[in-house]
Amino acid sequence: MIGFRFTDYIPDPSGSNLFEQLLNIFMQLLNITSGDVAQAFSILNDLDRKYKIIGDEYGIGDFIQDLKDKGYIEEDPSNLDTLRMTSKSEHDLRRRSLEEIFNKLKKSGRGNHRIPISGEGDEKTADRRDYMFGDQLDQIDVTASLKNAQIKHGLNDFKLTEDNLEVEEKESITSASTVLMIDISHSMILYGEDRITPAKKVAMALSELITTQYNKDTLDIIVFGNDAWSIEIKDLPYLQVGPYHTNTVAGIKLAMDILRRKKNKNKQIFMITDGKPTCLKIGAKYYKNSFGLDRKIINKTLDQAAYCKKLGITITTFMIARDPYLQKFVHEFTKVNQGKAYYSSLSVLGEFVFEDFVRNRRKTVR
Q1: N or C: which end of the chain has fewer CB within 10 A?
Q2: What is the mean pLDDT of the chain?
Q3: Within a domain: residue 98?
């Protein structure tokens, strides 16, 4: 019989389906609360009271126990009354972030870039062409070449000549060293808009992509407020905004110091920010000005952009702001560095970052 038979839906008595649904919500809450398990459960309880998302048969206590049993949370050894995330949760957050952004890329069609030429490299393409003097032996498609010889000469007089040879094109995949700069100044949570959570999600997804797919690449992550400092990938879920101004100069200087030590020829900085530079550190003191564009701060920032260009380091700025005067500054900054700039909304930030990352590390040569 062809077709579908519909029956009444009978919930899984073990609660496994409900567990997966709650886990999806819980992992999103962990990202928003910067890894605060207690706060995530508090929000989950509020959601349950308002929307009845947890059933009577499978309660919040069962969910907590399952999270413990499956290794997502554990008791803090220093305080047994407190629950904390495990390394499994940290990895799961990175994986979910990667899947979410890549699904958006597939749906929107982003990331599929046609290229005019192909060449030697690591990744085969579907393109074929006749052999030319100078082509390497490992480029020859042996199966296709033997087939050409058989068709042309037959089995009785079989011979393989140069004009039977067929070459398979390859796409060159370059290795790159990337520094991702994340703005953690107070403006990233101002005006009722959470900008730090999408930035963290992009950073987690990018780190998961590089560590699993591009193991020859390097990724360093730095955050910048009044100062700049490096963080580990495992620290990303716990990242929070501070009562800081925006010291872009400090961030770029640290990024350059990191990239100088890398052996890759392709070096780039991705900077996610929502505002203008408002801070400089001069000696042991901070010079700050949040009002307008302070030329003292702006000029120092532009100097760093020019120095990066001299070192061959491209800066791509992902600006989460639409203010015309801020866009004007980013345009000037990008022009000095000869880099790129995206004026992104929070909903498409991940798509822009990933599209640019994948495009930057691919090149074609003959």
Answers
A1: N
A2: 84
A3: no
pTM: 0.77
Overall domain count for the chain:
3
Could you give the C-alpha distances from 348 to 93, 108, 234, 260, 342, in angstroms and in order? 19, 10, 24, 31, 10
Tens digits of per-residue pLDDT, 145-189? 788 888 877 777 777 777 778 887 665 567 889 999 999 999 999
Q: Note down the domain range covering 250.
A: 176-363
Query: What tens digit of pLDDT does each residue of 344-366 get?
Result: 777 788 878 877 887 775 543 32
Q: Which of 173, 206, 233 is a domain's end point?
A: 173
Question: Do residue 294 and residue 357 come from a single domain?
Answer: yes
